[in-house]
């Protein structure tokens, strides 16, 4: 069997369930009828496959189990956040009363012990919930480790800590298949790359936000990373794509209204106008690419930003002088127009699919 | 990628990363503390004070705040307050010599960016004496003004009292550290300011700023912050500082003359550490 992630296995199980329901419906309407041999062969194959998938990935067999799994995911997430916060405050509560050597030993031992526990859980536990929780706690311990050492020894703040945290978080994310850790890794690496871009252009690293274009290299790298094969990792490519778009479009949105903080040696009005055009073009391109590649995350994020760019433009043009009721009416009409366009696009897509099946 | 980097290998790499990063940090700390310190001033509570609202319930750690000033740009100003970290020496020429591109601001109205540079802090030197002179001048003016007008004039009376308090604070309570220069090369700065006890070379952040004087735009520099503006207190000195914190609580934050002196050493990476602490006034609880 090709390398599968848990999400892939769950999707396969869901398709089997839907297939079985659809087959029953077709048989009831006398559209299709399978011979006993065929029925038996399909049922045996599906039963064996579901057993194998359940044993390997701990998937949900029905909607009831799916709901419980969702509850477990939420509980795991909240538990990880709360445990991480607890560890932070526990250390802050007592660290001032320890000699320096003991402080250092505790700070180094905490992530190592937590990592050992995570490794053990990964070997013993099939579902992965406790492993993911432990992995997130390990990350929190490591962030505490380096940030507290910086405080104890009065170390000059540096973007290198973000690089190390990003690397660590990537390792944990891929080892434990945890999207939240991947998000943490992406955020840390974005800070590092943006700070480096800022430093190379001569500004203080902490002020990388003073020039939003510093975020563009990180956005590009993340988008390219989404094209790498991620078989066996649930939803990682989506995370890369969504963050890449956020990290690209938010600076573009800011620069489209505040050209004074751009690197470009041009008049402020020209910069703002250029970024507004770029915002519309790139968000439209994202929607197009998302439809073409069947990436709903790209379509949705592109939609959001296209709408944001459009509404902020309306605001610039009309808010000051137009009666408010008329302003919001125009926004509503624009939304309806977009609804019409998307409906037409969907209809076109359906017709194309039907043609392909003939 | 997944075939080579199995989960087991990734866990092991994570272990290695914890060890390597901690080793790198501790080696850096060792490097900073080894060799001759770049600066070794003997400072007091005036320059390294306890933070406001000490002994937080949730944080048992303690760091002292580094207090420092700059002289206002206007030498003849009777204003008893300092300019907000924008000294006269940090003018447009100095900013250009530090590598700031001021033409971008002039040509295209760009918001200025910050840079991390080396800043020279002078301890109880000419800048401090000048600050005292200006405060004395302001006080003398206020006193003369107060004497000329009737004693019922509240404004003159308030001004007289505040300049008197200000002068007293400068003499006894306020920090004697003043930022007097900046540069890109700390070695060059140290050659110029060779007294390691009097001149501290620290890392700090400078940003060009602009204001309008007689409707004409003027560019000047602003020292946003020191890169390290707090110094952690190790456990061996906590007893003394805890006693002072308790006294502060009883005095409800009233500022008093300094109770301790502290030898602060700046290592080869310009990162500070406390070398020794001495009590110079008794603490009564």
Give a brief rundown of this model:
In chain A, 78% of the residues lie in helices and 0% in strands. Chain A is built from 12 helices and no strands.
Which percent bin holds the helix content of chain A?
Answer: over 70%
**Percent in strands of chain A:** under 5%
- Coarse structural class of chain A: mainly alpha
Q: Which runs of chain A of at least 5 residues are low in confidence (pLDDT < 50)?
A: none
Distinct helical segment count of chain B: 7
Could you please describe the fold and organization of this structure?
The complex is a heterodimer of chains A (358) and B (285). Chain A has 358 residues and is mainly alpha-helical. Chain A has helices spanning 6-28, 36-57, 63-94, 100-124, 129-152, 160-176, 179-200, 216-225, 236-255, 268-293, 296-318, 324-357. Chain A is flat. The two termini of chain A are 31 Å apart. The model of chain A has no long low-confidence stretch (mean pLDDT 88). With 285 residues, chain B is of the alpha+beta class. Helices cover 36% and strands 24% of the residues of chain B. Chain B has seven helices and ten strands. Chain B has helices at 7-33, 92-97, 102-108, 126-148, 154-172, 186-192, 238-250, and strands at residues 42-44, 48-49, 63-66, 115-123, 177-183, 199-213, 216-226, 230-232, 260-266, 272-279. In chain B, the strands form three sheets. A four-stranded antiparallel sheet of chain B has the order 5-4-6-7. In chain B, strand 9 and strand 10 (272-279) form a beta hairpin. The longest helix of chain B has 27 residues, at 7-33. Chain B is globular, with a radius of gyration of 23 Å. Classes of the chains: A mainly alpha (358), B alpha+beta (285). At the A-B interface, helix 3, helix 4, helix 5 and helix 6 of A face helix 1, helix 3 and strand 8 of B.
List keywords for this structure.
heterodimer; A: mainly alpha; 78% helix; 0% strand; flat; B: 285 residues; alpha+beta; three-stranded antiparallel sheet; 10 strands; 24% strand; globular
């Amino acid at each position: 069997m090709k390398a599968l992630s848990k999400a892939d296995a769950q999707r396969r199980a869901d398709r089997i369930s839907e297939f079985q329901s659809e087959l029953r419906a077709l048989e009831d309407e006398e559209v299709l009828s399978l011979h006993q041999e065929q029925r038996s062969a399909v049922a045996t194959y599906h039963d064996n496959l579901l057993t194998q998938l359940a044993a390997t990935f701990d998937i949900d067999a029905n909607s009831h189990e799916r709901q419980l799994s969702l509850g477990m995911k939420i509980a795991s997430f909240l538990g990880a956040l709360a445990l991480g916060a607890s560890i932070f405050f526990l250390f802050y509560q007592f660290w001032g009363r320890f000699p320096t050597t003991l402080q250092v030993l505790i700070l180094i031992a905490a992530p190592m012990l937590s990592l050992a526990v995570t490794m053990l859980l990964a070997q013993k536990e099939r579902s992965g919930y406790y492993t993911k929780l432990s992995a997130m706690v390990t990350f929190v311990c490591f962030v505490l480790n380096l940030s507290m050492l910086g405080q104890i020894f009065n170390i000059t703040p540096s973007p290198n800590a973000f690089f190390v945290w990003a690397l660590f978080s990537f390792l944990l994310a891929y080892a434990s298949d945890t999207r939240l850790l991947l998000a943490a890794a992406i955020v840390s690496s974005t800070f590092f790359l943006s700070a480096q871009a800022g430093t190379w252009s001569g500004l203080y690293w902490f002020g990388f936000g003073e020039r939003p274009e510093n975020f563009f290299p990180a956005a590009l790298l993340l988008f390219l990373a989404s094209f790498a094969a991620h078989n066996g990792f649930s939803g990682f490519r989506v995370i890369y794509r969504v963050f890449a778009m956020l990290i690209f479009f938010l600076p573009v949105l800011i620069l489209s209204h505040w050209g004074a903080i751009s690197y470009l040696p041009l008049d402020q009005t020209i910069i703002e106008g250029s970024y507004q055009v770029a915002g519309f073009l790139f968000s439209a391109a994202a929607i197009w690419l998302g439809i073409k590649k069947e990436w709903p995350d790209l379509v949705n994020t592109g939609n959001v930003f296209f709408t944001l760019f459009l509404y902020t433009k309306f605001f610039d043009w009309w808010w000051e002088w137009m009666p408010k009721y008329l302003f919001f009416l125009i926004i509503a009409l624009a939304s309806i127009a977009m609804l019409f366009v998307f409906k037409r696009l969907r209809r076109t897509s359906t017709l194309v699919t039907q043609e392909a099946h003939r | 990628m997944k075939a080579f980097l199995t989960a087991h290998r990734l866990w092991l790499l994570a272990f290695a990363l914890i060890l390597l990063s901690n080793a790198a940090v501790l080696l850096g700390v060792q490097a900073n503390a080894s060799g001759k310190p770049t600066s070794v001033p003997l400072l007091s509570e005036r320059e390294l004070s306890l933070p406001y609202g000490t002994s937080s319930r949730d944080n048992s750690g303690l760091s002292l705040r580094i207090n420092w000033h700059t002289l206002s740009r206007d030498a003849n100003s009777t204003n008893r307050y300092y300019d907000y970290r924008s000294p006269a020496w940090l003018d447009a020429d100095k900013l250009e010599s530090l590598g700031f591109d001021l033409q971008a601001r002039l040509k295209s109205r760009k918001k200025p960016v910050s840079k991390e540079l080396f800043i020279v802090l002078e301890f109880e030197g000419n800048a401090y004496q000048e600050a005292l002179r200006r405060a004395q001048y302001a006080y003398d003016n206020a006193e003369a003004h107060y004497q000329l007008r009737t004693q019922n004039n509240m404004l003159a009376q308030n001004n007289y009292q505040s300049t008197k308090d200000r002068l007293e604070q400068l003499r006894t309570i306020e920090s004697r550290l003043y930022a007097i220069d900046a540069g890109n090369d700390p070695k060059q700065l140290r050659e110029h300011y060779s007294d390691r006890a009097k001149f501290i070379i620290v890392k700090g952040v400078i940003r060009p700023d602009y204001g309008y004087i007689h409707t004409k735009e003027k560019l000047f520099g602003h020292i946003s912050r020191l890169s390290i503006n707090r110094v952690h207190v190790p456990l061996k000195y906590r007893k003394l500082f805890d006693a002072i914190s308790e006294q502060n609580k009883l005095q409800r934050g009233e500022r008093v003359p300094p109770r301790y002196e502290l030898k602060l050493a700046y290592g080869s990476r310009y990162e500070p550490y406390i070398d020794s602490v001495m009590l110079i006034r008794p603490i009564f609880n």
